[in-house]
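Supplementary Methods S3. Input chains for the assembly prediction are listed below.
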Amino acid sequence: MSIADQALTDDLAARRDMIVCRGVKKWFGDFQALRGVDVTVKDREVMVVLGPSGSGKSTLIRCINRLEVHQEGDIVVDGVELTNDTRNIEKIRSEVGMVFQQFNLFPHLTVLDNITLAPIWVRKKAKAEAERTAMELLERVGIPEQAAKFPGQLSGGQQQRVAIARSLAMEPKIMLFDEPTSALDPEMIAEVLDVMKDLARGGMTMMVVTHEMGFAREVADRLVFMESGDVVEVGTPEHFFTNPKEERTKLFLSQIL
Amino acid sequence: MSEITAPIETRPEEPSHTAGRWIRDNLFSSVSNTIQTVVFSAIVLGLLRWILGQVFSEDADWSSVATNLRLLMSYNYPTEQFVRIWVAAAAIFLMLGLSLGAWGIDPGFSVRRSARTLISTGVFALVVRLLLPSSTPDAIAMAMIVIGVVAIVIGGVVMRAVPKSSDRRVSFTAALGVMVGLVLAVVWLVPFGSYGVAEGERYAVPGVTVASSTKVPWTIVLLLVFFAQILGRRLGVSVGSVIRRSIVAFWVIGPAFIIFLVLRDPSFDWAHVWSTDVPMAAAFALGGGALLYALGRPGRDDLARVVGALLLALALFHWVAAFFGWYPMLQKARISFLLIALAVLLVPTFAGERSARVRFAGAWVGFMVVLHWLITGINTPSTLEISAPPFLGGLVLTVGIAYYVMLVSFPLGVLLSLARTSKMPIFRVMSTTYIEVIRGVPLITVLFFFSIMLPLFLPRGMGISDLAAVFAGYTVFSAAYMAENIRGGLQSVRRGQYEAADALGLTTVQRTTLIVLPQALRVSIPNLVGQAIATFKETSLIAIVGGFDLLRIANSTIPNQPDFLGQKRPGLLFISLVYFVVAYTMSKSSQRLEARLQAGQAR
Ligand SMILES: Nc1ncnc2c1ncn2[C@@H]1O[C@H](COP(=O)(O)OP(=O)(O)OP(=O)(O)O)[C@@H](O)[C@H]1O
Ligand SMILES: [Mg+2]
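Predicted structure tokens for the full assembly:
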């Protein structure tokens, strides 16, 4: 059994592969950030990625929607292999939502325009329809009254919820989260995590880099622990928080818990 | 619910202080502060006195400017055709009024602040009266006193009547009405006097107001602004986006219509127009429109890219052929081929639903019609009987050239800056070379190159008019600087913005036009306006390559007139004032624009 398939319960194993990484290697100049990563994310699975700073967590999930280009190995997203073909990349990107640590909302557009932009220009939706969907999404993340404001006028937690709504407006099959709560004040973290839990319960396939252990324990189907560009251990939350196998995992968890 | 039930506190009144207190606090708070105040006051008053002395000194003779106003404004446009100038001015002012109204522009001056401004104006007028040299005509000295007293009294009454806490504002319509009323009153009532000639001697005729051939048109034009503003406000509310879009379209293509239809009136060879021009325009407009509509159907992106590439190859081939003179083809056909190729390449970005395709194809048809009309208009002789070839000159030329140079060099600058920051090495190298070469060469050299050297390089049979050459030179020059200013803005857009756009699946063109450029241009506004002001002032170099701009008229045309031999100073002072007023207005409006944009996205 390869490391990618570790800890697959029978239920998970029966599902479709949404993200498959096989031997993914990535260099920044001479520095190797990923050293042959094997990970499989199944349909409707929530996978949380853990690891110390600089271990390559961001690099890995950014390779999945081609914000970074890997040099060796294969990445297959929902059956489409990532190659240099721009059409493939645009297709994958429009089906994979991404939420950033720094929100990255478009400051010159209102909240509503932030959300409707991609549906109108990429999905070619009619404006009225896109706006209706956007308002529904804003209801879902709990801030419909902020639709006409600009991002600069919102709190961090509100901005991050808009960013999630913006990704969801593209009706993605997969959502990637790169430390979505790390730039937030403690009192705002819960409101963003609640939205993410909601999404997970709704059956979204998610890959989440986070240091929120409570979230990982409650929501994750599986956890991945990375260090120095390697996947060290994959397992269920139960496995991780009761008896992790590897020494390095134990050390990391003891520091963070 | 506590937030709602809590009593709403009113903002505390600002502590009131008297004028004397303010002066003490701000001007004489310490010894060094007092010294500074005294020294600077002395310098400013001295300067003002010197300027007034220049203006009203015994030997200053402003008749050279007054007599030549028409020359300075529009050069030697035939007098009997002057109605065309007025029609053009009326169109521009009408649109100005409509624009002010439709965008709901309203500086929102508070009543109290306006009253304060009025009082300071009055004080200033009285100070001017004190500093006037003794040679000043009595009427002007008297006028200063009257203006000063009236302004101070009105301002004072308003200040007393309106309580300090009031935030009453002057409505823009009212302010505009007062301004228009004042100008009209001055034009109709003030006896500026005029100059008559008797036995070869000029003499001043006192007590005459402005000639009716001037004041009647100005009255109409100013009233047009006022009423158009009100109309624009109404329309802005009822059919906002339609009227605003039409107005923008007017500002982009309107000046061309004015120049070629109103001021120049091309004498079309109608047989040729019907046999060649119209069919060709129709073919490109309708054929191109149909092609764009068909290729815009979802799922035809690849086809559009292939067709676009083929058309581009064909278009480039026509240009190569023109260079070697293989076969003749109308220039506008070559241009149209190139444009349709570019439009087809853009199809995947704008394609989509039926309505989107209709809009894209419709924009193309409209664009083609206007472009072909313009090219035909430019290539057709004028019906006007004009003595000297450059029929445009003076302020009209200065403003016109500056306006068009900015209009054309701006998109060029955007493209150059994007090329310079692109990942593709050939774009980067080409754009960098262009920018560095142009920036390393003085403007005057570029202008000489275009007006003198370029005609020598053109294929046989192809000419370029002086004005077109000058315009091309300025545009090429200005584009390089625009590009550098915009590049500064591009660098300020954070990487996260690119990543967010990519992660949403936007194409590179969409990312650039929808996300990156809007942010970059906002940052670049101050520099771009600086650049625009520089361009406006640099139009004075037209004189050197043969145009009759403001500077040339003031510096050599007027001093060569038999009546005003050698009189340079009044003319130069006058045009300095004109340059200053225009440049200052531009700078002020850019500050407004910035403040408005920033209010939206406060960070
Ligand atoms: N653009 C880049 N150029 C060069 N090196 C990079 C670049 N991006 C990341 N790296 C390096 O790659 C390694 C992995 O980075 P990555 O951002 O993936 O870590 P991470 O696990 O997300 O860490 P953190 O928890 O701090 O976000 C780090 O050593 C980092 O310095
Ligand atoms: Mg990271």
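The interface with chain B takes residues 65-67, 90-91, 93-98, 100, 102, 104-108, 117-118, 121-122, 124, 126, 150-153, 166-167, 170 of chain A (CB under 8 Å). The CA atoms of residues 225 and 249 of chain A lie 7 Å apart.
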